[in-house]
Amino acid sequence: MLDTIEEETWELRLYVAGQTPKSVAAITNLSRYCEEHLKGRYKLEVIDLLVNPQLAEGDQILAIPTLVRKVPEPIRKIIGDLSNEERVLVGLDVRPALRK
């Protein structure tokens, strides 16, 4: 039986500023969504702009926290603490995992 789920690895980059409540919430929420909907098919890079502010320019980050989907293309961005799961999944164009 063939698996119909695409095996492309998703590349996600989350820009935060230190350990603010919004940054911590965004990391927690995104990690949960990835494990639930993209398990084994994603790479998540968290970039703290207090440590590496120069990295904001490459992805044109204007607000934080900001999530950037690098792969699959096209690039998509979501700003905020990622607390609305449906909005995040729609924004990233993730198909919800099929329940068995």
Automatic annotation (TrEMBL):
Residue intervals of the KaiB domain: 13-94
Transmembrane segment boundaries: none
Pfam family, one: KaiB
PANTHER family the record matches: CIRCADIAN CLOCK PROTEIN KAIB2 (PTHR41709:SF2), KAIB-LIKE PROTEIN 1 (PTHR41709)
Name of this protein: Circadian clock KaiB family protein
Organism: Hymenobacter glaciei
